[in-house]
Structures are given as structure tokens and as C-alpha cells.
Amino acid sequence: MHSHNRASIGHQIKYALRRPQRIPRHVRRLSRNAWLRLSTRDHIDYYRAVMKSDVSRSSERAVGSKSHGRWLALGQMQFDYLERHGLRPEHRMLEIGCGNLRAGRLFIDYLDTGNYYGIDISPDVLMAAQGTLVDHGLRDKLPHLMPVKDLRFAALPDEMFDVVHAHSVFSHSPLHVIEECFQHIGRIMKPDGWFDFTFDRTEGKEHQILREDFYYRTETLLALADKHGLRGTFMDDWERLRHRQSKIRVTHPGAAPVTGRAAAGRPKDEAGRPKDEAGRPKDERREQRPEASQMAQDLR
Ligand SMILES: C[S@@+](CC[C@H](N)C(=O)[O-])C[C@H]1O[C@@H](n2cnc3c(N)ncnc32)[C@H](O)[C@@H]1O
């Protein structure tokens, strides 16, 4: 969670003084993004171009992981949390912004054959996702991977999904994209289905950086869900994990209340201290968000 405005000049100057070695990389990113913004029609078109450029260097970095080890750990964190909070093999699941299947490979492996659907605005990252399927021996699980141009889900039938998941997608989305999703997601969720998403939370002024990273107040997103007839619940126990985004679960108002195994059930280290999702003792965690573009963020 962030209480200061990372887009402010003051923050950027302080950041640059603390990490001068990052200035050239930031300037390169700034110029690239400025050019991409000029040459694209709208946010989706722009972000697709950002992904194309990032994936051409490394698909793991493009989804925000600085190393293969972090890529594996971030996927595992998402999987473990969702499995503790209700995911079952017989569920049909949609992952919005599935990227190169950082977590998707674990969902695909766990779910019954044919029950995983991954959508993304970036054809380039979906090509990389196919490589992940092959590398992890998941072809026989017959996952569905689909490029999309918006979040209206027009090609998907009513009440299709038990679980919808979007990790580190709304952290890159302007509010109108999130609203489009809320407008349509209820139609494709089963009556007792749920939709978990992460977002970059601020308790200060809402802001964005380079049109890549967007910071929202929790109440903004809860009110937006409510406006579209959905109930949002802030997932407190996600806050205890080694990740700097926050998580909200959205359900139909009549659905059963949100439940899940809480921290009490978590594994302990030799000294009896609870471990985090990546298996580290909680008090050894560093304040770290493992994904994103530099200086302006460090961070997806
Ligand atoms: C930071 S990556 C995270 C990928 C994946 N969720 C994970 O955790 O590894 C964000 C992904 O969301 C996709 N994305 C961004 N905006 C989207 C949108 N409006 N609809 C669908 N996908 C989107 C991007 O192309 C990218 O693959």
C-alpha cells in the first residue's frame, strides 16, 4: 500500500537521488512510452504495444518478474492463496490477463482437463504462454487461451465460471477498463462464483505513472463493484503475503460470504514463526513488490 503520490515531482526527484543508476533506463522507458502513446489509439492498444516491446526482451520480465526464481514464486503465491480460498479441481476458471502463465501453469495442472480459460490483450505474451505449456508438459490439459480486445467477454457464455482471477492487471488499467470489466463480469460468473483481483492500493490521491501503473483507493473499487450490482470484499489476509498489491474478491450479492483458511493454518518455521507464501518466515520479509517498470515503479 502507498500513501504518497509516486507520480509527484518530489517523489521522482527523491527516487532519482537515491538510485541515480536507474535514471538512464527510466528515461529510455519514458521516451518509448511517449512514442507508443502517440502511435496508438487507446489504452488497450497502447498497453498491447508496451507488452510487445517488453516480451521481445523477456516474457518473464514482461509480466513483472526479475528472475526465473521470482516468476516461479509469484505463480506459486497466487496458486496457493486461491487453493486455500476455495479453488477446486472441478471448477471452471477464467484468468484475465493470464500473461505467460506464471500462475496459469499451476492452475492448468490442478484443474480438471479443459477447465482453464486464459485471456489477454497481448498476442505476444500468449505466444510465450504456449511455450510455457509445452515446457511444463501441460498440452494434454487442453487449456483455452484467447486474445481479447476488451473486457466485455462477448465470446463467453452466461454463468460459465466458478472462479475468475486477475493478478496484476488492474494495476495497469485505467478506471474505465475496470468499470467495463465490472459491467460484464457478473454475466459470466456462476451465481456462487467469485472474482479475485489485485490492485495497487493508495490511501492518498489516486494517480498513475507512465500510463502503466495505476493506484486506486479501496473504496473507489468497492463502490464501482457496487454500482454494477456486485459485492466486493477486501481480502485482509492477502496483505500478510510478500506482495505489494492488495486483493479484492467480488461476488454476486446473494452468494455465500467469503471464507478461507486464515493465517492460523499456515506452516511454521523451525522456531514456530508463521511462514509466508514463499515459505519464508514472515519477519524476514522485505518490503518488496516483485513486479514492474523501474523508477516510476520498481514494480508490476
Ligand atoms: C503484469 S502481467 C501479469 C500476468 C499474469 N496475471 C501473472 O500474474 O503472471 C499483466 C498482464 O495483463 C495483461 N493485460 C493488461 N490489461 C489487460 C486487459 N485490459 N485485459 C486483458 N489482459 C490485460 C497484459 O497483457 C499482461 O499479460
UniProtKB/TrEMBL annotation:
<feature type="compositionally biased region" description="Basic and acidic residues">
    <location>
        <begin position="266"/>
        <end position="290"/>
    </location>
</feature>
<dbReference type="GO" id="GO:0032259">
    <property type="term" value="P:methylation"/>
</dbReference>
<keyword id="KW-0808">Transferase</keyword>
<dbReference type="InterPro" id="IPR050723">
    <property type="entry name" value="CFA/CMAS"/>
</dbReference>
<dbReference type="InterPro" id="IPR029063">
    <property type="entry name" value="SAM-dependent_MTases_sf"/>
</dbReference>
<keyword id="KW-0489">Methyltransferase</keyword>
<protein>
    <submittedName>
        <fullName>SAM-dependent methyltransferase</fullName>
    </submittedName>
</protein>
<feature type="region of interest" description="Disordered">
    <location>
        <begin position="245"/>
        <end position="300"/>
    </location>
</feature>
<comment type="similarity">
    <text>Belongs to the CFA/CMAS family.</text>
</comment>
<feature type="domain" description="Methyltransferase type 12">
    <location>
        <begin position="94"/>
        <end position="195"/>
    </location>
</feature>
<keyword id="KW-0443">Lipid metabolism</keyword>
<keyword id="KW-0949">S-adenosyl-L-methionine</keyword>
<dbReference type="GO" id="GO:0008168">
    <property type="term" value="F:methyltransferase activity"/>
</dbReference>
<dbReference type="Pfam" id="PF08242">
    <property type="entry name" value="Methyltransf_12"/>
</dbReference>
<dbReference type="InterPro" id="IPR013217">
    <property type="entry name" value="Methyltransf_12"/>
</dbReference>
